[in-house]
Each structure stands twice: as structure tokens, then as C-alpha cells.
Design goal:
The chain is mainly α. It has 19 helices and no strands. The protein starts with a helix and ends with a helix. The relative contact order is 0.18.
């Protein structure tokens, strides 16, 4: 009886409580720091509404097909990424060597977590800084505070430690008691803060200029480079080929439609990115700031604006709290695959897996911390021309995002599109009709892999 109770409890914690909770968690995984600054900026400089249309087409024809495929593998394999891929491959009569897709995704996500925690730690530091009104510093000094933070490895290590500890405490509590409870609180809070900040931007900022920057349709700016950018943004923004979608998919109940869920996830991710633009750019233009500041827009430019605006301390702290929430929902999804693997394959207790891999991720993250200060001139692969000036952090970022993720996406598309029997896919996926299924099969076989191959080639 005791064993039966334990088994029931374990099974209970291996599925989402509802399809809505799964979608909420998956959207939280996809929505991260990149959505808040990169996507709105790319839209603004790449044709506004014209780019949005191109981007949406790329989401539909590239990102969503891969997303559906990865969710299907996860649910069909019902395990952590490496084991799920092995199970699905063997069931399809293929070599278990295809498990390499799962291994690549899990390792990519884990490596990204090591530096994502460091960058997310900056948001925690800035909640405090903004709440103090940046100590009354003038705009130039406020911008300088970010450089001061980067030059201080001890401060960066402390915030990195705090952030990754928060993430590990959530993951250690399991699917329903940890991740589900977290996203049920964090995601509604994130959307609420986003709406409040848009209202603040409408009152204190130049809302008309922000809307024009984001949505003014200029098709003359659309060329091959912009289309390539849209493909890359669509692929990376949805967070496919990182193991997390496959892992979250393994927890999806059979009655939940993967196709409908994928469309909602992609749509919500895009919506949040556009809303982030309506939050940021009115403030940027009202203060005569440069919208093309890139990452510096968040930690140098905007803080200077908050420091000189009415209510800047309150809304500045709220803004960085929003960023922190987005970062937490992303990193718990990134950490979950390797913890689930350790739990399911090695028999490690979840908490022990979190301690082990959390500590290793924290330790590797110290290399990223030092890449911004004491190791800023250290290039491990200096003997190789293309990597001569890349720090440890830049190398990890390059190999994960520019190489392993696209390769993983291409292999996944080839496997699902060409090596799994169409009737098996059709039985599991609800497309509402044969015609739509055939369109998806064409996209996963031809369009998606060729588009991602273009992204991979350009990055090389």
C-alpha cells in the first residue's frame, strides 16, 4: 500500500494539473530577457509593422512546426530529453543514436543557464538600485553604475548566487509543488506589471513616438538580411532545441492538444515582446535616448531615464522586478531537463540533483562573471582566428546559440519529418483535418530545416 501511494504521488507529479498551466509554464519559459529588449529593438529598426508580418510568417512556418515536433517527442517519450529521444527513435525502428538530439538540447540549456543566471542577477541588483532612486545620481553617473557593477566580481557573484538559489529552490520542489506554483504566481504578476508599466509609459513617455517606431510599416527595409533576422528571432525566441520544451512536453496530459498549445505559446510570446516595446520605447523617446542602445538600453539608458522621471524610483524598481520574474520563469525551465534526467536515469532524489547540478552551474557561471572583469582580456581560443577576441562567456554563448541550437533544430526536423511514419504523427497530433496535417508535414520536412540551415550558415 505504501509503495502504491508513493507511485501514485510520483505519477501525479509527472503531469501538469491542466493544459492551461502547461501553456502558462511554456510561455514563461519562452518569455525572457531577450523578449524585453531585443525583439522590440529589432522590430523598430527593421521596418516596424512590415517586420512584424515577416516575423509572424517565420513563427508559423519555422518555429511552430519545430515546437510541435519537440512537444510530440517529449510527450511520446515521456522522459527527460536524452531518454525521450531514445525511446521515440527505437519505437520508430530507428537507431538509438538519435538520442544525440536530446543530449544536445539538455547540454545547451544547461550551459545557457550558467550565464543566464549571471545576467539575471543584474536585474536583482537593479531592483535595489532603482528602489533607492539610484542614490540621487545624475544621468551620466547612473549609466556609470552599470560599469561599476560589471567591474566588481564579488557583487556579481553575490547576485548570481542569489538568483540561481531562487531558481533551484523552485525546481527542487518538483513539478506541481514547485514549477507550477511558481508560474501560477509569476506569470500573472508579470502580465500585470507589464500593463502597469505600459500605462506609466503612456503618461510619462512619448507614446505616439513609441507606437510609430514599433508599427510604422516600411516594406523598403525588408531584405534578405532582415528576413534572416526574423527567422533567427522566431527560432530562438520560442526556446526550441534547448531541451526545456521536450521536458515540459513529457508532462503534458494526453487530452491536451499539442498543436493548439504551440500556437498559443508562440502567439503569447510574440504579444509579450510587442507589449514590452510599448513599455520601453515611449520612455526612450520622451527622454531623447537612443533606441538602438542594445543591451545597454536596459541597464544604462533606461535607468538614467527613471532617475529623472516622476515616480521613477517606484516604476524603475517595478520594471526590474518584471525582468527578474521573466528571468526566473525561463531559468527554471532551462534547469528542469537535467534535473529530470538525473532523477529518472540515475535515480537521484530531485533535491540532490538540484544541489549537484546547481552547484556545477553556479561554478561555471563564475567564468562568465570574470569575463566582464578580471578575465575580460582572456580569450581561451585565441589561436583560432574567428575566436581570437571572444571571452569565456562569449564562447559559451556562441557555441550554444549559433551552433548547437540550430543543429539540434535541423536534426529534430529531419527525424520527425522523415523518419517517423506520418500515420503515427497524425494519430497523436490534432490538426483538425488532413490538409493542415500535410501542410505541417511539408513545413517540418522542407521549410523549417532549410530556414534554420540558412541561420546556421550565416552564423558561421
Amino acid at each position: 500500500m505504501v509503495q502504491m501511494a508513493l507511485t501514485t504521488a510520483n505519477n501525479h507529479d509527472r503531469t501538469w494539473s491542466s493544459g492551461f498551466t502547461f501553456v502558462l509554464a511554456a510561455v514563461g519559459a519562452a518569455v525572457g530577457l531577450g523578449n524585453i529588449w531585443k525583439f522590440p529593438f529589432v522590430v523598430g529598426v527593421s521596418g516596424g509593422g512590415a517586420f512584424v508580418l515577416v516575423y509572424l510568417a517565420c513563427v508559423v512556418f519555422v518555429a511552430v512546426p519545430i515546437l510541435i515536433a519537440e512537444l510530440w517527442i517529449g510527450r511520446r517519450g515521456n522522459r527527460s530529453p536524452p531518454i525521450a529521444m531514445q525511446v521515440v527513435a527505437e519505437n520508430a525502428g530507428r537507431s538509438r543514436a538519435w538520442s544525440v538530439i536530446g543530449w544536445m538540447g539538455m547540454i545547451v540549456g544547461y550551459l545557457i543557464a550558467t550565464y543566464y543566471s549571471v545576467i539575471a542577477g543584474w536585474t536583482l541588483a537593479y531592483i535595489v538600485k532603482a528602489g533607492r532612486g539610484f542614490d540621487g545620481a545624475d544621468p551620466t553617473a547612473v549609466a556609470q553604475q552599470f560599469d561599476t557593477l560589471l567591474e566588481n566580481p564579488l557583487a556579481m557573484t553575490c547576485w548570481h548566487t542569489v538568483f540561481i538559489t531562487i531558481a533551484l529552490l523552485i525546481v527542487a520542489r518538483g513539478l506541481r509543488n514547485g514549477i507550477e506554483r511558481a508560474v501560477k504566481v509569476l506569470m500573472p504578476a508579470l502580465f500585470t506589471m507589464l500593463i502597469i508599466m505600459i500605462g506609466y509609459a503612456a503618461v510619462e513617455g512619448d507614446f505616439a513616438a513609441g507606437v510609430d517606431f514599433l508599427f510604422n510599416t516600411d516594406f523598403s527595409k525588408i531584405d534578405g538580411t532582415v528576413v534572416l533576422s526574423a527567422i533567427g528571432q522566431a527560432f530562438f525566441s520560442i526556446s526550441v532545441a534547448m531541451g526545456l520544451i521536450m521536458t515540459y512536453g513529457s508532462y503534458v496530459p494526453k487530452e491536451v492538444s499539442l498543436t493548439k498549445s504551440a500556437l498559443v505559446i508562440a502567439g503569447a510570446d510574440t504579444l509579450v515582446a510587442l507589449l514590452a516595446g510599448l513599455m520601453i520605447f515611449p520612455l526612450v523617446f520622451a527622454n531623447g535616448l537612443d533606441p538602438a542602445s542594445g543591451p545597454g538600453l536596459i541597464f544604462r539608458t533606461l535607468p538614467a531615464a527613471f532617475a529623472g522621471m516622476s515616480g521613477g524610483a517606484i516604476f524603475g524598481a517595478l520594471f526590474f522586478l518584471l525582468l527578474a520574474f521573466a528571468a526566473v520563469t525561463s531559468i527554471i525551465a532551462i534547469i528542469e531537463p537535467i534535473v529530470a534526467f538525473a532523477e529518472g536515469h540515475w535515480g537521484l532524489r530531485r533535491r540532490n540533483g538540484c544541489l549537484l547540478f546547481g552547484f556545477i552551474a553556479w561554478a561555471i557561471g563564475l567564468a562568465t562573471v570574470m569575463s566582464f572583469n578580471v578575465w575580460s582580456d582572456f580569450a581561451p581560443l585565441a589561436v583560432l582566428g574567428p575566436f581570437a577576441d571572444k571571452t569565456v562567456f562569449e564562447l559559451i554563448d556562441y557555441f550554444t546559440a549559433n551552433l548547437l541550437m540550430p543543429i539540434g533544430g535541423i536534426l529534430m526536423a529531419i527525424f520527425v519529418g522523415w523518419l517517423v511514419k506520418p500515420e503515427v504523427l497524425a494519430a497523436d497530433l490534432d490538426f483538425g483535418g488532413v490538409a493542415l496535417f500535410k501542410v505541417w508535414l511539408w513545413m517540418i520536412r522542407i521549410v523549417a530545416p532549410l530556414a534554420i540551415l540558412w541561420v546556421l550558415y550565416s552564423s558561421l
